[in-house]
Design goal:
Layout lengths: L30 H6 L4 H17 L6 H26 L7 H18 L4 H26 L3 H24 L13 H8 L2 E4 L2 E4 H19 L1 H11 L1 H6 L4 H27 L10 H11 L12 H19 L7 H24 L2
Antiparallel strand pairs: 1-2
Length: 358
């Protein structure tokens, strides 16, 4: 009697339900921690807090023209804070940026007036001069190995002395001559210092340029090879050089970007007031650096964004004008800035520790 075996259906054990095991490297971090890891989040929250504070305490802030004025003050700081921030992300900073603005304006004004040139020639020559100052700073840094503090402090003192001495020598005064009646002045003013009407409110063109430059800087940092180079040389320049990053080019070009920013702001000042005081600009470099630091850039380099300094500059403009609109003593402005700077540094430190905590 034969026995036949019949194969029964295969029994498959269903996978056990429950959380899938992952190691620490593949665990997705919570959204809140990922947001805190962004360098601009802390300053954005601070900017909102400052805005709400003055909105409540200073009723003129609620007016459209007052906000346009606040944004204008912010833009004149923010345009320079952007290249300064990029330079800081690249691991350096520039103490000469404040007086470099005045140097550029003086160059354009005196060359145009004394040589009876079209003011656009003065503008172009001032751009060459400003880029040359940035080139000098960057070249000295990479060739000597000196810290940027010493190199740019030397440039700061040189420019400060030259601004005063050359202006007195050429014009016989501490200010340049009025160039408002010279050829090309109207066209240059339209580019650097004009206003346009939005709903009955006069808006300065520098606000538009500020936002355009911020968008361009953000794209460069996040979407281009050059942006990767900036972060790399700021993090560790030797490691960056080892993987093929052109460290020398990147450092020098960042200083030249600061020169470009100084030229642009200098042209705005020249065509806004038609003349330039040679002793101005001292101390402004600290404002630009502080706006970048408040915006989340580290003095040690390798970390930061272009959007953060936009909010940092807005906080400066908000405080500067908000104190006036609130009717307070403007002498308190620098005290407020000091509190803002220390507060921003502490907040950024807390944000970084929170964001890196598992």
């Amino acid at each position: 009697m034969s026995m036949t075996q019949h194969a029964g259906p295969a029994v498959t054990t269903p996978p056990a339900s429950g959380p899938k095991e992952t190691d620490g490297r593949t665990t997705r971090r919570p959204l809140a921690l990922r947001l805190l890891a962004r360098p601009e989040v802390g300053v954005f929250l601070g900017a909102v807090a400052v805005y709400v504070f003055f909105l409540v305490t200073a009723s003129p802030v609620r007016d459209g023209s007052s906000m346009a004025n606040i944004l204008y003050q912010s833009s004149t700081i923010g345009i320079m804070a952007l290249p300064v921030a990029l330079l800081m992300i690249g691991g350096e900073f520039d103490l000469s940026s404040g007086v470099a603005v005045i140097s550029s304006a003086l160059t354009a004004a005196m060359l145009s007036y004394q040589l009876t040139l079209n003011v656009w020639m003065g503008v172009i020559l001032a751009l060459v001069f400003s880029l040359g100052v940035g080139l000098f700073n960057g070249w000295m840094l990479v060739k000597t190995g000196l810290p940027s503090f010493l190199v740019t402090l030397g440039t700061f003192l040189i420019l400060q002395g030259v601004n005063l001495a050359v202006t007195k020598l050429v014009t016989g005064n501490v200010a340049t001559d009025d160039i408002s009646d010279m050829d090309g002045f109207g066209q240059a003013k339209a580019v650097f210092a004009s206003s346009f009407d939005v709903g009955g409110v006069q808006v300065k063109i520098t606000i538009v340029w500020w936002l355009v430059f911020a968008a361009l800087a953000t794209w460069v940092l996040l979407r281009t090879k050059y942006g990767n180079w900036v972060f790399a040389v700021g993090g560790n320049k030797e490691s960056a050089r080892a993987v093929g990053v052109p460290v020398t080019f990147t450092k020098i070009s960042l200083f030249m970007l600061v020169g470009f920013g100084a030229w642009f702001v200098g042209m705005h000042q020249l065509f806004s007031f038609n003349t330039v005081q040679s002793g101005e600009g001292v101390g402004q470099e600290l404002i630009y650096i502080a706006a970048a630091v408040i915006g989340g850039c580290l003095l040690t380099g390798g970390y930061g964004s272009a959007i953060g300094p936009v909010f940092g500059a807005f906080m400066f403009g908000m405080v500067q004008q908000g104190i006036v609109y609130a009717g307070w003593n403007p002498d308190w402005f620098k005290a407020f800035l000091g509190v803002m700077l220390l507060g921003a540094v502490l907040i950024n430190l807390w944000v970084q520790r929170t964001a890196t905590r598992r």
